[in-house]
Design goal:
alpha/beta; Aldehyde Dehydrogenase, Chain A, domain 1; Aldehyde Dehydrogenase, Chain A, domain 2; 2 domains; seven-stranded mixed β-sheet; 16 helices; 35% helix; binds NADP nicotinamide-adenine-dinucleotide phosphate
Length: 507
């Protein structure tokens, strides 16, 4: 049975231990760790045992957090000079580094990440905080002289960027720590207060991170952690005290948030599932290795996971068999075992959904080329399905994002057909192109309706060193260092009138 142990005394404030030995985590209400009156259990995907209990904030707690942050906290953070805000983020990075074992452990036990993936997420979070020094140059404005119109002659304007006040971050289960860190970094560099609502499936790494942020000296009245269920978020979303919402989650959740929230600023990093294109002159061994990783890494539970493979006819049979070989090598099991390549899915329901998608594909003429076998409640083999081209469009695997280690492959005549098949999917997050022919690559760069294209590698957003974000059902806006500042700030135009003062000639 999996049991959550937290060793560092740094985290003592944020939980107490229940009679049955289960830690009960508290919410952070603008300066205080507070226990609510109702609770929900958190299970480990490794064996489904309950590893924590989360106290849900009361309506009173939520109102208190919003009011303190609105009245005081957003000014506390805004009044902190930029270099001091940056120092807090850098100190938080140091604290993540000194508490790395507890952080990695929380990601392995709560999110079911392999040791390598969990270490990678903590390292990416540290790097992201340290690279906040690249965001700050994007806080820019304009100077506009008025003498290009006779109405505005003898006036001038500056256009400055200001923080929107409070950013509400809603984070998904798949990168609980990194997504919180990333949203925090660009919100706080821009001078905003920060409220985070993590996924109810794995909120523990987020609660631990908020404690480190507090210890690093983050203004206490400018911060809240609200561990509510998504279905209870409606009132908060529409609260006029919130200036921007940054959501990473499914397209379905994105639509609900947009409908409930009213007029605000948004960043929406939504569902995806990427296309990989294999051209006839590609290095096929390399392509197969990278595409396989794009399918199975973190059990396919990545927005940038490869879900559709389109291979040109002359190399179709070869890439298919190489991919099958690669996927058969993947060792599935307990993510605490360092020899394991792929751990569990986050919950049994996710495996059920993948099994249904396989059945749906097979009923429409699909053929299982690799995997397909369920290995336990939350475990399943990485799977490759071959689709007849004329049936692909009907398959769930094509029409929806199945958030699991599964992809569908079919052959294509030419790049025109690639663009046609890829663009008719409702999503537009990323694509990968494997090959050398610059004319074909150039054609695809121009025609694929996606937010990013990776040439000769599988899509990976990483720390957001390069900007990422979707088109169509995959979202609104861009994340990535420097690129999100525009969504967490608002322009303010200041017009100076010197008419009749006789000073214009001296400007
Ligand atoms: P999800 O079920 O949509 O949940 C995401 C977050 O939204 C959770 O915190 C969830 O809380 C909350 N939520 C659910 N319903 C809500 C509502 N009505 N109002 C406000 N918040 C609500 O997504 P997930 O399964 O955690 O994450 C996987 C999804 O995220 C995939 O679709 C993936 O593609 C996408 N994703 C996109 C990117 C990108 O960069 N585009 C990156 C990573 C992930 P509860 O957990 O309490 O329900």
């Amino acid at each position: 049975m999996v049991k959550l142990e937290i060793y560092s005394p740094a985290f003592k404030e944020i939980y107490r231990v229940d009679g049955d030995g289960i830690p009960v985590f508290k919410n952070y209400i603008a300066g205080e760790w507070v226990e609510g009156k109702a609770f929900y259990d958190v299970r480990s995907p490794i064996d489904q045992s309950v590893i924590a209990r989360i106290s849900i904030p009361t309506l009173g707690d939520i109102e208190r957090a919003l009011e303190i942050i609105y009245k005081y906290g957003r000014w506390d953070i805004r009044n902190l000079p930029g270099y001091k805000r940056l120092n807090v983020l850098h100190r938080t990075a140091d604290l993540l580094e000194s508490n790395i074992d507890d952080m990695v452990n929380s990601l392995v036990l709560n999110a079911g990440k392999t040791l390598g993936a969990a270490k990678g997420e903590v390292k990416a979070s540290i790097d992201r905080l340290r690279r906040s020094d690249l965001d700050l140059r994007k806080i820019q404005g304009d100077y506009i002289p008025g003498d290009w119109s006779d109405e505005t002659t003898e006036t001038e304007a500056i256009v400055r960027r200001e923080p929107v006040g409070i950013v509400l971050a809603i984070t998904p289960f798949n990168y609980p720590l990194f997504d919180t860190v990333n949203k925090l970094a660009y919100s706080v560099i821009a001078g905003n207060a920060f409220i985070v609502k993590p996924s109810s499936l794995d909120p523990i790494p987020v609660a631990m991170f908020i404690r480190l942020l507090e210890l690093a000296g983050f203004p206490r009245r400018a911060l809240a952690l609200l561990m509510l269920r998504g279905s209870d978020m409606e009132k908060i979303l529409s609260d006029p005290r919130i200036g921007a919402i940054s959501l990473t989650g499914s397209t379905e959740t994105g639509l609900k948030v947009l409908k409930s929230a009213g007029i605000k600023q948004f960043i929406m990093e939504l569902g995806g599932g990427d296309t990989a294109v294999v051209l006839s002159d590609a290095d096929l061994e390399w392509s197969a290795q990278r595409i396989a990783r794009g399918i199975y890494s973190y059990s396919g539970q990545r927005c940038d996971a490869i879900k559709l493979i389109l291979a040109e006819e002359p190399i179709y049979d070869k890439i298919k068999s190489l991919l099958v070989e690669e996927l058969r090598k993947v060792r599935v099991g307990d993510p605490r075992d360092p020899s394991v390549d792929m751990g569990p899915l986050i919950e049994a329901r996710a495996v059920d959904e993948m099994v249904r998608a396989i059945e749906d594909a097979v009923s429409k003429g699909g053929r299982i080329l690799a995997g397909g076998k369920r290995l336990g409640d939350t475990y399943i083999e990485p799977t490759l399905i071959e689709a007849p081209k004329d049936k692909l469009g009907e398959m769930e695997l094509y029409r929806r994002e199945i958030f699991a280690p599964i992809a569908v492959i079919t052959s294509v005549r030419d790049v025109e057909e690639v663009a046609e098949i890829s663009n008719r999917r409702p999503y537009g997050l990323d694509a990968a192109i494997f090959g050398k022919d610059i004319n074909k690559i150039r054609y695809l760069i121009r025609h694929l309706e996606v937010g990013a294209i990776y040439i000769n590698d599988y899509p990976r957003h990483g720390i957001g060193y390069y900007p990422f974000g979707g088109r169509k059902n995959s979202g609104i806006g861009r994340e990535g260092i420097g690129y999100a500042i525009e969504y967490t700030t608002a322009y303010k135009t200041i017009v100076y009138n010197y008419k009749g003062k006789g000073i214009w000639e001296y400007l």
